[in-house]
Inverse folding.
């Protein structure tokens, strides 16, 4: 079953992400730029916070960084299930928290339950990315938890693999989905400074790769519909 809209002249990509302190946001913006450059019709959508105040007010620097990021991304439209319904391809991103999907993103995924229940996500191209504090702090586990959602949705998962030299750069290397390492860095005025240029190039590559597959599928489906 395919829910992709083959009548549209361009491939539609929704980039849906949650970011507490700016790292995932920076990757998401790079993905948007790469997609627009590749000629896709792109929606960049932020998943809102699920708490009104900081999770940990006693961590004052983190709290200030979290507030700064909230201000910086406030203009980006909030994600809705319609953004998933609209798209031919879906790129989901969020930080690793305890080695899995952050709660706001999980909440958003659960809100898409009715759309999924009516088969509205099946056959779309999907891919995911993350940022963690430590290289071995659960990047793969986080990506796999996002990709497991894609299995449930009936998506066609396109991972970056190590299919381009950029994926072997020292700050990359996770074939499951592009992942940056923020380290102990959530410092007001210095948000996301540990996202490297190679991370940004890699998420651009991952985005183009999924768009290539989505384009090919759309062409094939249109040819099938015309027969
Ligand atoms: C509640 C919480 C749990 C976290 N758990 C992990 C973890 O399990 N492993 C890890 O490496 N980093 C962990 N981190 C750090 C974040 O994954 C990391 O800072 C990430 O770069 C944040 O992305 P963001 O700036 O887009 O929110 C955690 C952070 C928070 C606030």
């Amino acid at each position: 079953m395919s829910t992709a809209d083959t009548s549209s002249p361009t491939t539609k990509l929704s980039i849906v992400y949650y970011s507490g302190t700016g790292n995932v946001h920076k990757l998401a913006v790079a993905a948007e730029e790469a997609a627009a450059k590749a000629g896709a019709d792109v929606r960049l959508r932020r998943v809102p916070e699920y708490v009104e105040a900081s999770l940990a007010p006693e961590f004052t620097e983190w709290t200030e960084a979290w507030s700064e990021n909230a201000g910086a991304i406030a203009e980006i439209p909030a994600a809705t299930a319609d953004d998933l319904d609209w798209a031919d391809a879906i790129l989901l991103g969020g930080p690793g928290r305890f080695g899995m999907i952050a709660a706001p993103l999980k909440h958003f995924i659960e809100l898409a339950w009715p759309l999924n229940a009516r088969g509205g996500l099946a056959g779309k191209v999907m891919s995911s990315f993350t940022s963690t504090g430590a290289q071995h702090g659960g990047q793969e586990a986080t990506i796999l938890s996002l990709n497991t959602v894609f299995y449930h949705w009936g998506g066609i998962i396109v991972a970056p693999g190590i299919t381009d030299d950029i994926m072997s750069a020292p700050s990359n290397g996770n074939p499951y989905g592009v992942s940056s390492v923020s380290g102990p860095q959530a410092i007001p005025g210095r948000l996301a400074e540990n996202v490297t240029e190679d991370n940004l190039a890699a998420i651009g590559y991952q985005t183009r790769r999924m768009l290539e597959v989505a384009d090919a599928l759309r062409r094939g489906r249109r040819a099938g519909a015309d027969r």
In short: The mean pLDDT is 95. The domain at 12-226 is CATH 3.40.50.360 (Rossmann fold). The longest strand covers residues 89-97.
